[in-house]
Queue: 3 jobs
Job 1
Amino acid sequence: MPLSPLRDLARLLTRGGLPLGLCGGGRSAWPPQIFGGGGGPRPLATFGKESSTTAEGAVNMARPRAEADEIKVAVGVVGPGLVGKALLEQFRVQLPVLRARRGLDIKICALANSKRMLLSDSGIELSDWKDRFEGSSEASDLVGIKDHLLSCSMPIPVIIDCTASDYVSDYYQQWMESGVHVITPNKKVNSGPLERYNAVKKLQEEKHVHYFYEATVGAGLPVIGTIKHLVDTGDRIKSVEGVFSGTLSYIFNSFKRGTKFSDIVKTAKENGFTEPDPRDDLSGTDVARKVTTLARESGVGLELSDIPVESLVPKELESCSSSEEFMQKLPEFDDQMTKLQEEAAAAGEVLRYVGSVDVATGKGTVSLKRYPESHPFAQLNGTDNIILCVTDRYDPQPLVITGPGAGAEVTAGGVFSDLIRLCSHFGAPS
Amino acid sequence: MPLSPLRDLARLLTRGGLPLGLCGGGRSAWPPQIFGGGGGPRPLATFGKESSTTAEGAVNMARPRAEADEIKVAVGVVGPGLVGKALLEQFRVQLPVLRARRGLDIKICALANSKRMLLSDSGIELSDWKDRFEGSSEASDLVGIKDHLLSCSMPIPVIIDCTASDYVSDYYQQWMESGVHVITPNKKVNSGPLERYNAVKKLQEEKHVHYFYEATVGAGLPVIGTIKHLVDTGDRIKSVEGVFSGTLSYIFNSFKRGTKFSDIVKTAKENGFTEPDPRDDLSGTDVARKVTTLARESGVGLELSDIPVESLVPKELESCSSSEEFMQKLPEFDDQMTKLQEEAAAAGEVLRYVGSVDVATGKGTVSLKRYPESHPFAQLNGTDNIILCVTDRYDPQPLVITGPGAGAEVTAGGVFSDLIRLCSHFGAPS
């Protein structure tokens, strides 16, 4: 588009007082587009490259969604491990569908783990990303990734942190400050120091950068988004309570008369339901992180250390030097777990490892509790999570969400849905 | 901002090839703003009114979110009845909060029922909308409402249809064609003729207008949004099954040994849990509408008439001329319902009125079924809805959502959350 019609347009803008705007044009990669003032991210018109176009004529050349009208997103994935790998596979299958049906042009422009990284301007081919990634000789650089995404020709940069690393989450602020959005199943920021959490949330509010973390609680279950919508629409959370660990759900759903606690932990470990060291699950810290997150979502600014946690690791085994030693000694403590189980059963109850937030008292707790057989918590199967939310509107009957709350596929699905949510904030069709 | 710096800016745009855009300025109501090209709806900078500003200087005057940067939404509410009234009350309390915290400037610029309407450019004061509305002498005009919203100074127009009227839903296409978004708990489009449904969905895809209807199934429970996110992220729905009528949930949750079916229907009617004529609930049509909706969300294009529905209205009472006559004669049929209840109880089971969609066979059904006491459907209380969704990822353990699925407050909450979702598509902060 030559200078002269643009000037005409400038005149139209200033003289006519039209609430219109112009983007792109000139030598820019974007074709000129007219925007309505104030609200809509969608252009009212996208112009062709005809050099004789006058401003007035151009406005009449409005056309429906074209390639230039796609939502272009440059994604960096940090931590292509279990969840990251599942996510990249979901991307491989589904990104072409999203592009064709919804106009979302999402490209994976960076991959990194703690050692190396792979950058691309045009998007990494996902059919053989693993070979390419492992063949990369570039050293990992979490600032470099951000700079690369910002330099890509895709205007929406986002980093998806699929690690569980506190080191990585320390970069969120820096990334977000420079306009990069963050999506993560990593619980470290939301359950870490309030100061860092508040700084990230403040950036989210003030800088129009987005920070989504649906998969930090219940994996792909719609927990965080649901609570946020309740709060946004003026409902008031009274309490949130649930079974938030797939591992501990499995263990107590299986712990019935005639079974041994240590045998169940062993089976869970063998099936890959536990962390490499099962003490990481049995200590309750993971559940406490989720309780901290849910408390903050409900408006209670707790620190992880504020939450009393009933650890299921016997005191005597805390200092075992290896998980092998721990697993070997665990049977010595079967009797005391069996006693708890039998006492509960005698009262027609079951044991469940539960996290809860009480908004009125501002307290969170993590503990082993007993529930009658008819209670929703007693009805769980496998590695199901359950979340029970009492609010002004959902009282006395709570809103309850149940389902698999762990596993690479469902966690990746939760992360992916955050990415689609991010696109909506940039005008994606619904 | 005078013409000359704007011209400088135009030069910067064309000569520098910068992917920047300019909105507002001159005599427009919007202060001049610089936009990044391509993606973000948020301005990079909003300028003050200093007349000596040069374009270069102006860019340096970027400031954080200002009033001009608010998301401005003009809402028309059609049908201020039970749900509409609850919604307006939620708006009264929460809209100031959303404006202060999230920069959402949402104003109610129109109200209408079948008789009259009330229009306002600057937003109807919500503390006494009822008096104002009832005092309005303007006749209802569903085209006039659209024209009014489009003429308001708020750039995002939306009509919220809180009626259950097929007549009103016939206007959606016309509204959406002219750029007005539609939000509704009204089931008529999603369960009505496929042709009209497809036309509305096509507009949603092609015209960048939005159509949200979370509250059509399960009221405020996150059902529609969850299924949509699963499908969008590449999961495949296999089946959706549940108790979708708060009324019929209440009736069968209460229908235990020693109770009479007709007594329970009577209590439900007295508590306002049924439609004025309980046959409207007992016929199963409402559940069939929800099954049709869920089938379409899952990718199965069913018509309402494709769904076999087991009606609970005895054949002999279908032709009763009034609900009074129906209620009077219903006790004659208690024996046959008691027989069903006792047969189920003898097998350790309960009766539940269930809707289901089987994606593989492409079929939907609505019928009275028996479930063992341990089944999630047997655990319901009050007017709870439950939805159980089996997908590629959620199999064999389904994703389950339970909670109050009827009532003005929770339904209004579901509608309100759609409005916030709409704002996200226009760049609202998350």
Job 2
Amino acid sequence: MAQTREAIRATIESYVRAVAKGTVDDILALYAPGATVEDPVGTPVRTTDAEIREFYGMVEPLTQTGEVLTVKIAGNSAAFLFRLVTHLGEQDIVMEVVDVMTFDEDARITGMKAYWSEEDMQTVPSS
Amino acid sequence: MAQTREAIRATIESYVRAVAKGTVDDILALYAPGATVEDPVGTPVRTTDAEIREFYGMVEPLTQTGEVLTVKIAGNSAAFLFRLVTHLGEQDIVMEVVDVMTFDEDARITGMKAYWSEEDMQTVPSS
């Protein structure tokens, strides 16, 4: 049975919340075994659990706020725009990214590709 | 030499303008030979010039307005959110889509995947 749109949308919301506020384990729980991560697109694809844990381990200690702005679902795939704000004392780093994900039939993430570059990061006074 | 961000951005703007207001030839001129089109994602990939012409031939006669809302570039790829409004007498069909494209070194499109489904189309009174 195919995953529902609602389940895909829920995974995306949980993902952005986990990246902003959760632990590496919270994030990894949303991934299917064997998943791949390419972030940003054009860099080497992370294919092992250890590589993916290492990647998300970099964001775990940060104080962040996340928000899903737009979700477009097509079949078992989705593209979504989200905003991640990293709070660094008197400054915030605001980043807007489009992630493209594929999902298995339980709406777990089987692949993630992130589209962004340095021009999508802005440093602003903290709000 | 790699394509510049400015060239990729210009191709995306030209693409949305051509889809909204241009001819099939205007659109095809932005594609590299051998390009592929998957619109929406999950449907069969169009791989030949004839298939791609047939696809864009469906939108050529429509009266449309297009607008690029957000562009995220990563390496030789980009994901962008755009809005396409089709004017049908007293009604408009408003559609928001995320397209993901890859580009060759001349910033011509080598692959296009469109993320949307029926829920991303809305019929509203014409403005």
Job 3
Amino acid sequence: MSAFDLKSLDECLEKHLPAAELKEVKRILYGVEEDLTLELPAAATATAEQHGFEIKGYRFKAQKEQLRKSRLVRVGAIQNSIALPTDAPIEQQREGIWQKVKAMIKAAAEAGCNIVCTQEAWTMPFAFCTREKFPWCEFAEEAETGATTKMLSELAQAYNMVIIHSILERDAAHGDTIWNTAVVISNNGRFMGKHRKNHIPRVGDFNESTYYLEGNTGHPVFETEFGKLAINICYGRHHPQNWMMFGVNGAEIVFNPSATIGRLSEPLWSIEARNAAIANSYFTVPINRVGTEQFPNEYTSGDGRPAHKDFGPFYGSTYVAAPDGSRTPSLSRCNDGLLVTELDLNLCRQVKDFWGFRQTQRLPLYAESLQKATQPDFKPQVIREQ
Amino acid sequence: MSAFDLKSLDECLEKHLPAAELKEVKRILYGVEEDLTLELPAAATATAEQHGFEIKGYRFKAQKEQLRKSRLVRVGAIQNSIALPTDAPIEQQREGIWQKVKAMIKAAAEAGCNIVCTQEAWTMPFAFCTREKFPWCEFAEEAETGATTKMLSELAQAYNMVIIHSILERDAAHGDTIWNTAVVISNNGRFMGKHRKNHIPRVGDFNESTYYLEGNTGHPVFETEFGKLAINICYGRHHPQNWMMFGVNGAEIVFNPSATIGRLSEPLWSIEARNAAIANSYFTVPINRVGTEQFPNEYTSGDGRPAHKDFGPFYGSTYVAAPDGSRTPSLSRCNDGLLVTELDLNLCRQVKDFWGFRQTQRLPLYAESLQKATQPDFKPQVIREQ
């Protein structure tokens, strides 16, 4: 069995485990004690069928409170492959992906989504493996005024939906610099702001550090009509302190648009965003692309293998984790898909009251410890035998 | 099926999944591509059989380097139930647990372990649910000179083994205060130092905050003959920043002696210590007790249920996670057990070089962010629609 014969971990467990064991396994693995399935409107499933992408719906409930109403929001997470070969003209490549994803945003609207988020660098192949600046930097757009932000602003307004999209950014006003950036568009179709990827990988084929630097936008939380949102872009999910600062700034949902491949990171995928949801009492939405991308010129991977032209497969497996440690099943490992999840944002504060992780965080201790740890003459706290 | 019919998640998967699927599921769930089984000496398995506890062995390998020799160490992790009813005389209760655990330490020595760690508050029932100070505070001992430290010091010297044990501490020199403390004894049988639990729960039956306060010992790393060790006690595993500081101080193995129960934390158990291993490029060893403990007087759980006398079941499931994100299977959810794991400590730096998480950590950013976040006039970084 090759890695991609297994289309879905969840379907494999459901197929083989007897019902009673499956229930226990799901409780232990996923923190799920009841069926999370959310029935989706026929229009949404019809759109998914027509365009050939997977659609799944789940819901997380919270307790009823006396003084606060339920704050139900529906979140759409989109994973997809690119549309055209990577040597097609840039505009056609982008247009091909736009068409794919527009259908998925339409289905999200039909499914009642209030917020949608794309995968990382969604308008382009993840070409940073090549270290070629041309033509890939041509995919970069102004976050505020670029063609993709404009196109999505219309959809956001039409569908009354917050849209978060993750692109390669060109900042003309600051020396034509390139950034890895997420843009937040309000449900009125207005540009709300942007966040730049805080942690940049230097691993495997992720040669991103040769294209852009560490983000300079801090840890912004976007207060939208549908909750307080933040974006932790891709490799930033490996850094608990990055997740923590979005929590400190009040996030209720943190999206993690990503592009990551099999053996490199798949065993980490189900751990990190879920740990962040637990540690920070918020929802997390890790999103990964699918498919294998072929590039015009061969490149090497720094792992002893011969030069090659393919990058991937990206293993998809988009899911949502809740602050109580439970999580949805994943989208497939290989197909385009839309994950629709209904959240009651009240769960965040309820879990804070229950577990008390924020209350017991001792931030002053860590502010002081990190302050010391970053001094040039820092001496680690090491105890040796006397 | 009740929660405890499923004795082991791993055995359940192994029983029901076809071989090819099982291999893929283990790769995705556990990051394991080859069999980790470590063959154990007959003497160790005989001792385990004689005393009726589970024993399992696993190994994590690292790449061979040219300039550093492999640094193989064997770690023993002990999970156990108490030995006598909780209304037996204190000394007999303690002696009963000592006898149990001494046999397990003997088996650890026979299995070639260099380091052994107990579960949290190992000499006593986890009686803090009751909020009764008497007689439970009588279990507290001086970390440096208490009877249990003395007893273990002899074993440490006899077996040439570092022993870490987690106890209720009585600090007579500082006002007879009570702490939740881990003690490190060198393989020469000498007291090396202690660490006090940094984060204290206020959740469910974990009424520990009525017994002791947040630890005042920082994040010490113990430089032993068998590697740099640290201890993150129980509830501290929910706090990524706690794990991080042990990493900043250079830990290669961080033990997590715990006492935690089913529905409360089991879905978090497999996530948090493993996430810490990944984020900090070190090994983690989460250890949990087993069994249900009955107390003389009834108490309430703050969850609407009637008063009762039982606490638990503690679900065991002790495991080891490696810096590359892989992990061992768990010990059982209900039996006493010794988990023997051979580690090559060289893997820590190899993973740092590969993934670069430490390199890309941006600690100065977080030192500054936390400094600001802990000021009384802190304003979170929130962006609203203009």
